[in-house]
Amino acid sequence: MLSENEIIEVANTYLTALEPKIGEPLILPQELMIKKDYGIYFIYHSKKYWETKNWEEKLLGNAPFLVEKSTGKIIEFGTNRSMEEYIKEYEAGKYS
């Protein structure tokens, strides 16, 4: 079982790997984290957007993801449904 700090470290490592593909610094806002008994859901943004809230800096296709507490596995979701729907699908076993 991973601690909350270890889960966040896994998420930050994942984000660091995405930065070269996206071409700019990314951020995991703590206030957007959704903590569950089985892991933490993360929503990331470009650092520039998060600091300025300028819509021209907003990323497209920045899909949310989950880091599972028991395994450290990263589950990527899509962008075409709400976060609540992805959570329900995960909890129903769709991503296992």
From TrEMBL:
Residues 10-82 form the Immunity protein domain. InterPro entries: Imm35. It comes from the Bacteria. Pfam families: Imm35 (PF15567). This is Immunity protein 35 domain-containing protein. The lineage of its organism: Bacteria, Pseudomonadati, Bacteroidota, Flavobacteriia, Flavobacteriales.
